[in-house]
Fold this sequence. Notes:
Elements: H1 3-13, H2 15-48, E1 55-58, H3 63-71, E2 81-82, H4 83-90, E3 95-107, E4 110-115, H5 118-124, E5 131-132, E6 140-143, H6 145-151, E7 158-160, E8 162-163, H7 171-176, H8 181-188, E9 191-197, E10 209-211, H9 215-219, E11 229-230, E12 232-237, H10 240-251, E13 257-260, H11 261-300, H12 302-314, H13 319-360, H14 371-396, H15 400-405
Parallel strand pairs: 4-10, 6-9
Antiparallel strand pairs: 1-12, 1-13, 2-11, 3-4, 3-8, 3-12, 5-9, 6-10, 7-9
Amino acid sequence: MSLPHLLWRNxxxxxxxxxLTVCSVALTVALLVFLILCSQGVEQGAEKGYGPFELxxxxxxxxxxxxxNTYYHVGTPTGNIxxxxxxxxxxxxxxxxxxxxxxxxxxxxxxxxxxxxxxFLTRYGDKKLEAGTVxxxxxxxxxxxxxxxxLGVKVGDTFRGGHGLLxxxxxxxxxxxxxxxxxHEAHAGFLYTVVGILPPLHTPDDRAVFTTVDYAWAVxxxxxxxxxxxxxxxxxxxxxxxxxxxxxxxxxLGNAQAIYTSKAVADVVNxxxxxxxxxxxxxxxxxxxxxxxxxxxxxxAVNERKKDVGLLRLIGKSxxxxxxxxxxxxxxxTLIGLLxxxxxxxAGSYAGRDALFDFSGxxxxxxxxxxxxxxxxxGTLVIGxxxxxxxxxxxxxxxxxxxxxx
Length: 406
């Protein structure tokens, strides 16, 4: 009898316990795979989430809230600042590129962002649109690839926006958010036309609708003349010294704040890492439980295997064959659980990636195997081998004749 056939027969002899052991390993591995992919998504999003805009100017308030709303389209703006702040920044020699941004409205829950179309050239280079052209006039819009895929939006489609970050068609919630009847009428009377679809950028910009900066002024007729406001200003400084000079200067304004974008994003990542530590502790407990399940499964099989092991040793099977027959069952159970867990982790992440991206802006690179995942595979097999070792040594050290007689 070959070794693989013997291992398979032993495992099938105790189907229920074997299945439970495989499931415990698979669930633990799947959870770890999802956590690894999420951690990788957060790190990649933090690295390229704000592009070259090392400085951001916005209303007084939380710097992390300002960065998250401006670049990740998450949460609400900290407020508005006068248009004159943007006009002044445009004239600064230390600023290589400056873009005003207006936010606060949504299309089916996705944020509508007003920004000059040159923003895409500065941030993404000369990438071509997936379809159509960039917006030039008020009311024209370019839609992110995620929105186009999720909602089936095409060039030439028209839509109306809603106030705030609520879904359209929820008037009760809009009223709770403070939208007046006049504001509702203003949004209902303003029609957007889709003139372009962005290519997949793998950033939160995939889940936003972009249009001209003055859309907010056109919708909210109260903002006219000298009272125009913007939500934030994105600044690409010419140098680090220039960024420091601009920050110092605009921090002194009483109606605005200037933040280092990278620092604000790093603060968010640190908070996420602290939360992930709690999840890692729970996951470690799952790993321990999976190892215990393997140990209990093999220990309970020791008495059943005594006669088989004694017979193998009496008929002259090599020490290596006998040894592998003892620890091989645990390794086989671990390997099957590992493969099922990897498949389940990646498949589950793929199934939920759009929902996660909608909710948090975290993009998962589902089909890539990061270095941590290779370590996970190795560690899982090592734990399976260690859990199999004690039952194997317990039965292997007994005299073969005594094993057979028992």
